[in-house]
């Protein structure tokens, strides 16, 4: 694996000084900013909407990967694209019309991602492969930061890697949930190329920059 992208999740950031925390991650070499949007329906938590994405857009030039953990994501993709999202990632479990939503995202000029809950099989990707720019494999049940990674999901990650290598090699394979210095190399070994990390970066006692460096170090030889 040559390139490993690091995508700090601002879910665990200090929201009272969000701009500063995003800049800290950018200055420390983060590749993507991961933004977790939750609606209190699809997942049992409520976070942020397009206004905050627009605010984050003004403080960084990094791509914004907006992870929509919301019911009927098709209703909101245009609002998030207008707010400055570069990648819009949706859950197939939250829409009856995955193919249509992916087309919608592309028509807005954004890149399209699909996120899979731990129990969702990779087969849901089979007929939308040509529309995929990113697959986000959830290694926790979505809704909260700071949970423990579910190792059984690694088998699925390997299967997704093989699908993408065969049919969509340009798509990113991102892993989200419970990623730290121990689990990151395991995820890379199972085919991930992009690491989403919230608490391992924003709750690290050594600070954001040192935490990003430590994650890079942990996967350097993977
Ligand atoms: C969980 C979110 C994650 C979350 C990860 O529903 O999708 O992006 O921020 O947090 P950690 O890295 O703490 O597991
Ligand atoms: Zn996420």
If you compute it from the alpha carbons, what radius of gyration comes out, rounded to the nearest whole angstrom? 16 Å
What would you call the shape? globular
What is the oligomer described by this structure? Answer: single chain
Q: What structural category characterises the helix and strand content? A: alpha/beta
Keywords:
222 residues; alpha/beta; 8 helices; 18% strand; binds D-xylitol-5-phosphate; binds zinc ion
Structural commentary:
With 222 residues, this protein is α/β, with parallel strands linked by helices. The protein has eight helices and eight strands, in the order βαβαβαβαββαβαβαα. It has helices at residues 18-27, 50-57, 77-83, 98-107, 153-167, 183-189, 199-202, 208-219; strands spanning 5-8, 33-38, 64-69, 87-90, 111-116, 134-138, 172-176, 194-197. Residues 9, 34, 36, 67, 176, 196 line the site of zinc ion.
How would the blueprint of this fold be written?
Layout: E1 5-8, H1 18-27, E2 33-38, H2 50-57, E3 64-69, H3 77-83, E4 87-90, H4 98-107, E5 111-116, E6 134-138, H5 153-167, E7 172-176, H6 183-189, E8 194-197, H7 199-202, H8 208-219
Parallel strand pairs: 1-8, 2-3, 3-4, 4-5, 5-6, 6-7, 7-8
Helix pairs in contact: 2-3
Bound molecules: D-xylitol-5-phosphate and zinc ion (ZN).
D-xylitol-5-phosphate is lined by residues 9, 11-12, 34, 36, 67, 140, 142-143, 145-147, 176-179, 196-200.
């Amino acid at each position: 694996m040559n390139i490993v992208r690091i995508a700090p999740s601002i879910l665990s950031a200090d929201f009272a000084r969000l701009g500063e925390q995003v800049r800290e991650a950018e200055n420390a070499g983060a590749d993507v900013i991961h933004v977790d949007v939750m609606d209190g329906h699809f997942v049992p938590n409520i976070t942020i909407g397009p206004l905050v994405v627009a605010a984050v857009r003004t403080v960084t030039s990094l791509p914004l990967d907006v992870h929509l953990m919301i019911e009927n994501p098709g209703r909101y993709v245009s609002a998030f694209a207008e707010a400055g999202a570069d990648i819009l990632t949706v859950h197939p479990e939250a829409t009856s019309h995955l193919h249509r939503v992916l087309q919608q995202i592309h028509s807005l000029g954004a890149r399209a991602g699909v996120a899979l809950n731990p129990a969702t099989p990779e087969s849901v990707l089979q007929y939308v492969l040509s529309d995929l720019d990113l697959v986000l494999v959830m290694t926790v049940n979505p809704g909260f930061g700071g949970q423990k990674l579910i190792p059984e999901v690694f088998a699925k990650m390997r299967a997704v890697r093989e699908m993408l290598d065969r049919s969509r090699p340009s798509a990113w394979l991102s892993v989200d949930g419970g990623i730290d210095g121990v689990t990151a190399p395991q995820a890379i070994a199972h085919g991930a190329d992009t690491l989403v990390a919230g608490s391992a970066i924003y709750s690290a006692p050594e600070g954001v920059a040192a935490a990003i460096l430590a994650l890079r170090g942990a996967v350097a030889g993977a």
